[in-house]
Amino acid sequence: MRRAREPLLQCLHAVIAQRFELWPQLLASTAAEHAQSWRWNGLLNEEPAVAAVRVAHAIDMGPPGLQGWYAQWPSVIEPAALQFVASAAGLLAGCEPLLLLASATDGCSGDAGALIDGESCARMSAAGFDPETELRLGNCVELLGSAGDLLSVSATGIEPVATAPVLILGLKWHAPAGH
Amino acid sequence: MRLLVIEQDPGVQALIRHHASCRWPAVETMVYAPLERGTIPPEFLAQGYDAVLLSQSWSGAEGMEWLRDLANRGGFAPVIFMLDREDARLRDAASGWGAFAVVCKQRFAHAALIDAIERASHRHRLAMAEWRVSEEARESHRFGDAHIPGYRRARLLARGSVSQLYIAESEKADGLVALKVTPSQRDDSGIDQSFERFLQEYEIAERIRHPNIVRLHELGIADDHAYLAMEYFPRGDLRRRMKGGLAPAECLRYAGQIADVLGAIHEAGILHRDLKPGNVMLRTEEQLALIDFGMAKQAMLQMELTDKGLIFGTPHYMSPEQGHGQRLDARSDLYSLGVMLYEMLSGEKPYRADNPMTVLYMHRNSPIPQLASELAPLQPLVDRLLAKEAADRYPDAAAAARAIEETRAQWLATTAATE
Questions:
Q1: What is the Cα Rg of chain B in Å?
Q2: What's the predicted TM-score (pTM) here?
Q3: Whole-angstrom distance, CA of residue B257 vs CA of residue A78
Q4: What is the torsional sign of CA B11, B16, B21, B22?
Q5: pLDDT on residue B74
Q6: Which of B9, B15, B29 should we substitute to test contact with A (largest number of A Cβ atoms within 10 Å)?
Q7: How far apart, in whole angstroms, are the C-alpha atoms of residue B124 and residue B53?
Q8: Which of B173, B267, B273 is nearest to B229 (CA)?
Q9: Do the chains contact at A2 and B108, CB–CB below 8 Å?
Q10: Angle CA B120–B117–B51, to nearest 5
Q11: What is the pLDDT of residue B23?
Q12: Closest residue of B to A6, CA-based?
């Protein structure tokens, strides 16, 4: 799945600290560079745990390729993007070609988001964590970190954008022809 | 970045691979599952790896013992010890026994692992850079008169009249290799016969690619010597396994694997011609691998005799037609398989005599020996494989493999019913 992570990470990189109006265009061109189809779904209104169900279902049932959403969750105790991804990890467990990324895009350093796949839950268990328990305890940072799924954005040198939304990307991976 | 992970649990193997690949996308993670592969040979120093991650336990608490052994081998790559769960006493003990760093599998922390690997890699690269320019390093690349870069000599395994066989550690392959080195032997037309023979072995193994065939890593020339790097089998060969005694079902399983690989070889138009227990290696206790295709020939070629009238091959395992210099086909290899099967089952070779020529005579003329009465259900299989006339044997290796499998299934069913 190493190659499958690339389009997601580059999409994230493309929009960090960029104006939101530019996102659809930037994401579409990055998806095209990786020969992945692209679909922009817009805003997710639900709270993170519910939105996780919607997104997991959409990428599972959707065509191969990339899909994008955004959300504007207030982060109270820990980043809402991480709550969202940790909830989705259980839903995607065992679905090998599916990947999901959610990340803050304000350009601040730190644990901005996470990138999970169908094996994330198995890795969490192998790392001595019970995903359900940790999720209930709100221990998403440690849980996602244990699976190697945290995205730590180092200082970008870009002026942080205070009101930047959370980027959510789902990928049903298919290796591009000729690769 | 290259990592060696000594861990039995596939979940933890995948976990480490993922963590490492997130940090180093091009990382090479080799897994060593101890229950399948057994202990690490004493010659192995893991010098081609940046770090070794060693689990605390797989079926007991063996990891600590392994740590004590590995970390005390001079020049061994840094060992990162992975505790099953946090235990301050064990953590201290592991450090005391030479662990470069200690991490905990329970509530695994990405940063701790990556930091430990980074530090270990840095230290190992410095140590290797110093070592590479040392006299010891230069000496370690010496294999007889040949200097072969990329391989560290561990020890001489066997010395033949022409070639030498070494155990060596490769910087590229996954662990130890057997390195066969022979001086160039050019004929009148300038063709290097040693290289040609190695090339033949290499081509056969590359062409056939069967799980029961030795894996060959590299063929090369250095200092006017040809060398062939191939898979090393620490468990030894079938001879060694036979000394410990084999249950009939095991004999049949091994015979079935040999028949299967013979099928692949014959299908490629090649005869092995030198099948014997010394050429059948144990990759694991369950899986065999066939080696030494130096005698192999394209099928249907006539038997060769040397100027002195000596016959290539091993008399005890030779078919009657091979022993008498007649035309050979795939059924000759099946006869050799029959000899091995008989020997596995009875512990003795079917025909024994004081000199090789008498053995060859017996292959052709003496009656097929009988197995002990409790093994009587297996006699028809042996009779068919050891038939004097090739036409009376199985027509090909695939038919032999099927017959062996059927006999094995019947044997297991009968044994289960009587228990």
A1: 25
A2: 0.70
A3: 58
A4: positive
A5: 84
A6: B15
A7: 14
A8: B173
A9: no
A10: 60
A11: 86
A12: B25
